[in-house]
From TrEMBL:
This is Sporulation protein YtfJ. It comes from the Bacteria. It holds the Pfam family Spore_YtfJ. InterPro entries: Spore_YtfJ.
Length: 122
């Protein structure tokens, strides 16, 4: 029986590999007319289940096999990376649950401001 399930998986997995790839997580860059580049970032969830059984035959040494495979994929946008003339910015679509998450979201902007302040001093 395990050989039949193995064969089912060998037939299905190459097809599923095409569904989940790097472009599912980091999307295609979008160029705007002003030169800004927007890159979507997504969260992917993937589930796969396989199973089978052998039925009792009537006098045959080979038992009939019944099996199946099910899979599910979910792609959810979570943020956008914006690269423009004013610098790099992350726009999160999830609302931060705590102050630490918010600080991490704003850290690129804070570093840019700190750098510009330090550059102004003689």
């Amino acid at each position: 029986m395990s050989e039949q399930i193995h064969q089912l998986l060998e037939n299905v997995l190459p097809n599923l590999k095409g569904i989940i790839d790097a472009e599912s997580v980091i999307g295609e860059p979008i160029q705007t007319p002003d030169g800004t580049v927007v890159i979507p970032i997504c969260r992917t969830n993937f589930g796969l289940v396989a199973g089978g059984t052998e039925f009792r035959g009537s006098g045959s040494s080979v038992l009939p096999f019944g099996g199946g495979i099910g899979a599910g994929v979910s792609v959810t946008p979570v943020a956008f990376l914006i690269i423009g003339p004013s610098g790099v910015q992350t726009v999160s679509l999830d609302s931060p649950k705590d102050i630490y998450s918010r600080i991490l979201d704003l850290s690129p902007q804070l570093l840019d401001k700190l750098k510009s302040l330090l550059d102004r001093q003689p």
